[in-house]
Amino acid sequence: MKTEKKEYNVARQEYFEITKRNRKLAKIDMLILGTGLLLKYVDKADIGQHFMVFGMILLLYVFGSNMMAKSDLRKSEPK
User: Fold this and answer.
1) Which residues cross the membrane (predicted)?
2) Which domain holds residue 46?
3) Distance CA 35, CA 58 (A)
């Protein structure tokens, strides 16, 4: 039981590190998406489109990373 709890605590720490990093990435992502929308608004659609695509890819990465970290945390839960 003690080793299971130790493994769970390690997994929990990793989960919190990943979510902390992803919160920072999400803030940067919102800035990138906002820049893309602003550029599309001022008729620089060719550049704005690249920002929008990059922002969507980054958003999918952050979402996927959070989901994988949460599933790993659930797998290591002590029973």
Assistant:
1) 48-69
2) 2-75
3) 14
